[in-house]
Amino acid sequence: MKQIIRRLARVGDSSQCRSANTNGKNSGLRQSHVREVPEGHVPVYVGEEMERFVVRTELLSRPVFLELLRRSAHEYGYEQRGVLRIPCTVRVFSAVLDSLLSGDRAHSDADLIRYIDCDV
């Protein structure tokens, strides 16, 4: 995990930025052509289309994100250069992120992991 966090600190270049802005909460930016990453956030690239999301670092410790990071390491390895890629569809990642940011307690992390599994 420490290795992933160190790599996240070095990641930063891209051409698109996207995040989930739910219920007035600002988790990042949903703007095009923004390269800066706000303090306390990390960029991740999702799906085949490599869509960029800027995610709060506090979410990385949630079990569903740990599972996504584990899958990323399994799929791409720890030695991948450049960006942190998340191996799931943009649609599923957006739904998971929206659920986490909304504070929706109706969906546990286990539920969200099962949701990711259904998309595989």
TrEMBL record:
Task: Please give the Pfam families that the UniProt record associates with this protein.
Answer: Auxin_inducible (PF02519)
Q: Which InterPro entries match?
A: SAUR_fam
Q: Which GO terms describe its biological process?
A: response to auxin
Please state which protein family the record places this protein in: Belongs to the ARG7 family.
The identity of this protein, by name, is SAUR-like auxin-responsive protein family
Source species, please?
Answer: Rhynchospora pubera
